[in-house]
Structures are given as C-alpha cells and as structure tokens.
C-alpha cells in the first residue's frame, strides 16, 4: 500500500493545470493571489502566507478560478485583519536580538572577532564587515539547523526502525517540513529559531511518513508513539507563534 501511494505521489494529477497569478486589493495594496487545484480538496480554503507575501486559495479539482477569486475578494477584510496581526519586520544588526532554539539572543559585533558567529552566554558574537552581518548570521543559522535536525532525524529514525534518509533544508513560505515519495525529508530552516520541542515535533512528523505516507489514524498513532512530547503543544505553538519566525532575515 505504501509503495502504491508513493508511486501515486510521483505522478502528476491529471486535473492539475497551472493557474496564472492574480492580485486582489487588500487595505489599499495589491496582494498576490495564488490559486491551486488540489485533487483531495473538498471545498475552497483561504490562507495568508506566513510572511504575509500572498493570499492562497485551494480549490477542488472541479473548482472554478472565478469562484476562487470572488471567494478571496469577499474575505478581503479578513485578510486585512490577518496582515495587521503580522509581526513587524525586525532588523538584524549589532545590538538587535535573534531567536535561537527558543531563546532570545543578542547580536554582538566585535572588531577582531571571528567572522563566523559564536554562542556566548546569551549572545551571538561575530566580527567581519558589519554590512554583511545579516547574511553571515542567516548562513550560520542554516548550518545550525542542518546540524541539529540531522541529530533529530537520526533519533526518530532509530525509534521508528528506519534508516535515516537524505535531509535537506527548505525556505518554504507555507510548509514546515515535507517527506517526498522517495523518502527524502526537507525541513524549514527557520525552525532552528523555535523551541526544541517544536522543531523535533516536525521532524518526528516527517519520519512517521516513512512508515505511513498519509494522515490516517495509523499515521497519527505512529507519530504519538515516536514523539517524546505532546504533539498538541507543538502544533499550538506553531499556530500561535509560527509567523513570528518570518520577522527575521526577510
């Protein structure tokens, strides 16, 4: 059954057709509107991208694009309220703060310090040209994400009795993690800024897909057995705080 599902996942849906990008007016600005046909969708759903960059409508394979546009326009006030709740973009510079594994660390630039950031008692210390500080911090966080998540992956694969698959980072604006039909796993690098229990819940979720390539009751039972915490707590944190992870680094 799992092999059949994975073969199906590799096959493009017959009803999937590219839909030209559109915009809708929200609070006096043109907001990009992305419409996607999903074979498993039963109704239209509207979401705002985590970074507020676009609105997204998912429609069933038989849905009409015009209906999706009207659906989004009718909810422009809701989108405006969601945009108003978006956390303000935070500058990343000497003296600012950056979240790392659930802690808020102060960025300290020191003349003569190594260019590569170093953790030091609640601070991230680095040197080098100040104009490249944000880029170096982002690269360091991505490297930390890959290192830490590789450990998470090995841990949960061992619990699941699976070989650890290939791990890669993503810069997705919508998904925190994904498991491909070939078993490879991609994790959103921004999760390195979230508390450990949140990041680990997403890794455990994707590892559970190595056994159950769906979201069936069997999958959720397997995930509950794998994850050494309460999935509900992690999901609640992501729903409440996840957008805040997009305040930094553009």
Strand numbers in spatial order across the main sheet: 1-2-4-3
CATH topology of the largest domain: Zincin-like
Write the CATH homologous superfamily of the largest domain: Metalloproteases ("zincins"), catalytic domain
Strand coverage percent = 15-25%
- SSE succession: HEEEEHHEEEEHEEEHHH
Proportion of residues in helical segments: 25-40%
Shape, please?
Answer: flat
Query: What is the average per-residue confidence, as pLDDT, rounded to a whole number?
Result: 88
Total number of beta strands: 11
- Profile the largest sheet: 4 strands, mixed
Distance between the termini: 41 Å
Which segments are poorly predicted (pLDDT under 50) over 5 or more consecutive residues? 1-16
Label the structural class.
alpha/beta
CATH classification, class level of the largest domain: Alpha Beta
- Overall tally of domains: 2
Just name the CATH architecture of the largest domain. Answer: 2-Layer Sandwich
Radius of gyration: 20 Å
Helix tally equals: 7
Descriptive account of the structure:
This protein is α/β, with parallel strands linked by helices and 250 residues long. The chain folds into two domains: 10-84, no CATH class; 97-246, Metalloproteases ("zincins"), catalytic domain (Zincin-like, 2-Layer Sandwich), CATH 3.30.2010. Helices cover 36% and strands 21% of the residues. The protein is built from seven helices and eleven strands. The termini are far apart. Residues 1-16 have low confidence and may be disordered.
């Amino acid at each position: 059954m799992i092999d059949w599902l994975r073969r199906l996942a590799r096959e493009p849906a017959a009803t999937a057709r590219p839909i030209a990008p559109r915009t809708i007016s929200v609070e006096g600005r043109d907001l990009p509107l992305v419409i996607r046909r999903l074979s498993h969708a039963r109704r239209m759903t509207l979401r705002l991208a985590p970074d507020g960059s676009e609105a997204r409508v998912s429609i069933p394979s038989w849905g009409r694009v015009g209906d999706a546009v009207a659906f989004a326009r009718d909810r422009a006030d809701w989108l405006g309220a969601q945009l108003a709740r978006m956390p303000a973009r935070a500058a990343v510079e000497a003296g600012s703060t950056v979240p790392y594994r659930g802690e808020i660390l102060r960025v300290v630039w020191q003349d003569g310090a190594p260019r590569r950031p170093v953790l030091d008692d609640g601070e991230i210390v680095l040197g080098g040209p100040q104009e490249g500080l944000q880029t170096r911090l982002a690269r360091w966080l991505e490297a930390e994400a890959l290192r830490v998540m590789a450990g998470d992956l090995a841990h949960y694969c061992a619990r699941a009795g699976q070989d650890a698959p290939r791990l890669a980072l993503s810069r997705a604006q919508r998904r925190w993690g994904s498991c491909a039909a070939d078993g490879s796993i991609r994790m959103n690098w921004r999760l390195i800024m979230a508390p450990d229990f949140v990041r680990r819940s997403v890794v455990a979720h994707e590892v559970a897909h190595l056994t159950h390539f769906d979201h069936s009751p069997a999958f959720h039972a397997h995930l509950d057995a794998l994850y050494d915490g309460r999935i509900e707590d992690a999901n609640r944190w992501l729903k409440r705080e996840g957008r805040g992870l997009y305040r930094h680094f553009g």
